[in-house]
């Protein structure tokens, strides 16, 4: 047996017969020592500019937080920071077993947890909004958040990230049997911020889970959004919207792990890029395990390139271990403006800049409407307008 410099080839060479070999079957561990420092050669890190992460992926010191955290508290909902035995009991409550060094470090080293606890059968009429406002991007810090929804509850939680920060974060979501919940994470950081975050959800029997990732600001934002199932009949909708400007790196990685029969996942992410060096990454991973018969899954990623000098990487992956499924597929596209749309608008007396603005709004509009929070939807359309105004779409393709 001869080992090589290729870790995938080495794994194939040394694996036991019958072992499923894929980066979708990671070996997890809560022990930080079991996770080597990333080099950038690993499949899950190959797109990420590690030098810009300020050590958050490795061994950066977790300093006292420079991020203020405030929230509203609807009636009967518990929102508070917990520590001690209660915080320790929440580590891995979503079923997360860390497969990266940074997630293992957060669970091992962060002493407290922000807990949002929605009791069973409660229907929360207003969104629970948690505002995290960073005040100093030179402070490297870490946070652990748990969102727990009781059986048959209905609620929306918004995590709103703003200001200046260098943050590594783990968000765990537990969706109880029959619950209908939405979790919206908005990354609207200042230009000097770095945000490395992992969201892990487990969806109970016949429950419905919507996860919305929205990334605009920051120097570098990378979000891993994972979902698995704790019983048959669960459904997950993973939506994302991102807009990268000059020099920004925005990366979204999804993993729908179908661990139970008759489950569903639907993924729709849309992004726009403008300015020299703007870089977006979308990696959509779906694993249909042998036990997951009768499942349905589809993932879609669309990218709109607005100027020269941008790069959009889009990588859908689908791994199927059983042929007894209802349907599975994916679509990915990256392109410039639709010339026919522009011609149609300009032929009706609309100038080129306004025509391009209308096309971008149309590109995002249907996705924004799926979020289901009217006040946030209006804010997002305004943010798209502000992003477009940065370049006023001059010097476009």
From TrEMBL:
Q: Which gene encodes it?
A: sufD
Pfam families tied to this protein: SUFBD_core
What range(s) does the SUF system FeS cluster assembly SufBD core domain occupy? Answer: 139-363
Annotated source species = Nocardioides luti
Q: Output this protein's name.
A: Fe-S cluster assembly protein SufD
Q: Which family is annotated? A: Belongs to the iron-sulfur cluster assembly SufBD family.
Please give a single GO biological process term from the UniProt record: iron-sulfur cluster assembly
